[in-house]
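Q: Could you fold this chain for me?
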Amino acid sequence: GMHTEIGRISGLLADTTSLKTPLLEQMDRFARGLSLIVIVAGILIFFGGLAFSGLEFRELFMAVVGLTVAAIPEGLPAILTITLAIGVRQMARRKAVVRRMPVIETLGAVSVICSDKTGTLTRNEMMVTTAVTSGERYEITGEGYGSDGMVCREGQPVTGDGVLAELARAAALCNDASIVGKDGQPSIHGDPMEAALKVFAGKAEFDHVDSASAWPRVDEVPFDTRIRFMATLHHDHHGHGIAYLKGAPERILAMCAHQVSTDGGTEPLSTEHWERIITEMASEGLRVLALARRPMAKGSRELVLEELEQGAELLGVVGLLDPPRQEAIRAIKECHDAGIRVKMITGDHALTAGAIARKLGLRNADRVLTGKELDDLDEDQLRSLAGEVDVFARTSPEHKLRLVKALQALHGVVAMTGDGVNDAPALKRADVGIAMGVKGSEAARQASSVVLLDDNFASIAAAVREGRTVYTNLRKGIAFMLPINGGESVSLITALLLGLTLPISALQILWVNMVSSVLLAMTLAFEPPEPGVMRQPPRPRDESLLKGFVVWRVAFVSLLFLVGIFAAWFWVMHRHQDPVLAGTLAVNTLVAMEVFYLFAVRYLDSASITLRGVLGTPVVLAAIAAVVVLQLLFTYLPWFQHTFTTTALSLEQLAFSVVAGVVVLVVLELETAIRNRVKAVRG
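A: Sure. Below is the predicted structure, expressed as structure tokens.
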């Protein structure tokens, strides 16, 4: 079993390891770092308090517990899961099914997309447009898989006779596809390229429907990427045998010594003539196939590869056109604007691949690397070229795995598309494996992270946009939650250092963290993409969730929250000397500052909030209304008062909380204006 082709691929798949997504790596680093800081700070404060604060052991212990509760963002795992789940739902609407949830964010970090051509970048509606025999060139009219159209020579319709008839017979018999009518439209079963060959045979007036009974198939050699051709053996009613072959032109030419002339006879093969024709057709963006025949002994029942390698007679070549998807052209441009390299990997001729790449708008389309050239490169050379070349032709699925590893070695986050069993190892190895849902195999889907329901490259670009939005919303969630935890923690540390009563108890902190903070932060998961999200370069794979502006914003807002909490505490203590009332106002002030800070953090990467930001969205307004109701219960309902040690506030005290929130928002707007002015001066 393991010595078969399937067994070899299974072993390759077992040896291929999946990489952890960048988000999970970042969250692991973030969780370890934060946990270490909180534990060390708690121990130092506890023993320092025993030595210098004069507080009792029980009181100090509860203070450290409160500090730990305040510092850990308990709601972050929930926010992470909810944000990813919303991204998965949005992706499903874009015809992309996510099989592993964390990969939705990885799409936002993708810097390279390696895409198959047929059906993904093109419409996968193959049509034979040109046929060339030893002495004639024919144009085939019509569109798609319909029967409308004809074979023309110099603009005049021709009938299928001589070598053209034999070419049509080879196209129909060396073929596994079928075409049936469905709701008045042709429906194909099998490979689109083979279906196009059957349509061509019909236009050449060959009855491909009854050909199976007139020329029954006795044996076959299925197409394989190693041999690059397919062969079928047929007998007529008298038992005479003939083999028909179709495959890559250079492969079929190497197997032929003769060519079929216009009148049906044979003549020596003119290799240079055919190579020139193939080059011209490929440069027009046509996928070129060669068809040949080989007479077999009467009564022969088996095809032997060694016998097929010589003695074949070339019938001609056909050019198939698979037009690029217009939406793929737009999506590739969008990816380029976003700093994402798009690499096309195809089994077509190098000239065909280059022509299609130019139509699609790929960069470096004139530089094409073939599978044979890939085989001659060592790993260092491959890494050097993989970053420069964007078009790969005549490749086998095994080449995809090498390309993925080479691009990852260049610190790229790689998305790879595939549809066959042989693609499974590369799909598993890629940071984002994308399988085709229409033409893809079950093995490819199982090895992938994302399945496209429409096999369309535009869906990949839409998925990248959604992934970037998810990551941005996660950053907003962290930038929202950490200052709250930071303000709570710093206020407790300050109270301990000053020997004051804790302004907020551990239980009250837990209420804020698990109720109001989570409820408000959840709204950030529903934020739409910010303007220009697809005009930014991909973020580095090892980029920290906390960097640059986010770190500054967390530190700055934590200090604002510290000031607000202590302002509320000292204002009540100065007027009423009531610790319970002071703590209640401190909690409500903290929640009010959260609400107003939510409006500022919704547009983290924008210049400042707008009327849209102030008014919010239905989700934001609903969450704020829910928080207001919960805080009223927390403050005025006797059961809550008894549980959380709170008391009723006056209208004046409630107004103090609202004013504190407004001040936070105004200060942040001033900070944003100053930061933008400094950035403009430096720019």
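A (continued): The first strand starts at residue 96 and ends at 98.
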